[in-house]
UniProtKB/TrEMBL annotation:
Residues 10-326 form the Enoyl reductase (ER) domain. This is Zinc-binding dehydrogenase. Keywords: NADP, Oxidoreductase. SMART domains: PKS_ER (SM00829). InterPro entries: ADH-like_C (IPR013149), ADH-like_N (IPR013154), ER (IPR020843), GroES-like_sf (IPR011032), NAD(P)-bd_dom_sf (IPR036291), Quin_OxRdtase/zeta-crystal_CS (IPR002364).
Length: 332
């Protein structure tokens, strides 16, 4: 099978197209014949070995992970409730840039048979993260939500999900006029260019100085620290990503949260295992949203699997809006 493998960390060009054996699913796993796989900013960090999360402990050769959509080709021992031929999606940390990938069965979710493969890559990871961060924040009707990196693969879904959940005002940050125009089309009320030094003042002005009820932060670093100071009393900041890299969460004193503010983190794997029914309920809701048009999964580029380096270049330089997807050429 065709596989994109990495033998040394570095620029996008370190990814090579190679022929490798089709994996066999182990106990509790399923083998997916891949139609599409998403490319996120985290994968570009992994390729450079700057992904700060502790679960990333790679050994060469590396096959990067992502949101996979395809059909079940084989079942490992002990797997029940899934059949060969089922159309499914799964998020995996490893092995996704290939024509086949073996994943743990408990990560697999159903995908509608008639849903476009690129569109369906919202279902395994990016969409659940958007939904899960809002659930973690316990968003209430009429509250103000600040979404950082709102034009990205997760952020643009979070903007729309927040609107569907009843947010009163959505403040969206992005790094260019083109990206802010894109987010405006998705329903954001206030647009803030976070490349400007005065972006926090713009957020304060938008709330009349009252502060923000909910912040969804995938950046970290000083953006996170500044966000704590932008929270209204009883405001909640949910940290779920680390595009700032390195020291993603700066030291924050509990005294900075003393005004009844809270800072928490979201991890998809923990949500999936610890609150599984909530996770599954939100998956069903997300399928409805994508099907009825409540949420639009914007695909910036859908490229052949062999063009993984080009896809990484688009994401790493932040030249995209929405999601970049790799396609194997296999029809759903």
């Amino acid at each position: 099978m065709r596989t994109i493998r990495i033998h040394a960390f570095g620029a996008p060009e370190v990814m090579r197209v190679e022929e490798t054996p089709v994996p066999s699913p182990g106990p509790g796993q399923v083998l997916i014949a891949v139609e599409a796989v998403s490319v996120g900013f985290a994968q570009t960090q992994m390729r450079r070995d700057i992904f700060p999360a502790p679960m990333w402990k790679p050994t060469f050769p590396i096959v990067l992970g992502g949101d996979v959509v395809g059909t079940v080709a084989a079942l490992g021992e002990g797997v029940t409730g899934i059949r060969e031929g089922d159309r499914v999606g799964a998020f995996t940390l490893h092995g996704a840039y290939a024509e086949y990938v073996a994943v743990d069965a408990d990560t697999v979710l159903p995908v509608p048979a008639d849903m476009d493969a690129a569109q369906a890559t919202a279902l395994p990871g990016s969409g659940p993260i958007a939904m899960g961060t809002l659930a973690t924040a316990s968003l209430r009707q009429g509250e103000t939500v600040l979404v950082h990196a709102a034009s990205g693969g997760i952020g643009h879904l979070a903007v729309q999900a927040a609107r569907a959940a009843g947010a009163g005002r959505i403040i969206a940050t992005a790094g260019s006029a083109r990206k802010l125009d894109f987010v405006r089309e998705l329903g954001a009320d206030v647009l803030v260019d976070y490349s400007r030094d005065d972006w926090p003042d713009r957020v304060r002005e938008a709330t009349g100085g009252q502060g923000v009820d909910v912040i969804l932060d995938s950046v970290g670093g000083e953006v996170l620290r500044t966000g704590v100071g932008l929270l209204a009393p009883f405001g909640r900041l949910v940290f779920y990503g680390s595009s700032a890299g390195g020291r993603a969460v700066p030291g924050i004193s509990p005294m900075e949260l003393i005004g009844m503010r809270s800072l928490t983190c979201f991890a998809l794997g923990q949500w999936r295992t610890s609150r599984r029914q909530e996770y599954l309920d939100h998956h069903e809701k997300l399928v409805r949203y994508l099907t009825d048009g409540t949420v639009r999964h914007a695909i910036h580029s859908a490229l052949p699997l062999e063009e993984a380096a080009k896809a990484h270049g688009l994401v790493e330089t932040r030249a995209h809006t929405g999601r970049v997807v790799l396609l194997t050429g296999r029809a759903g």
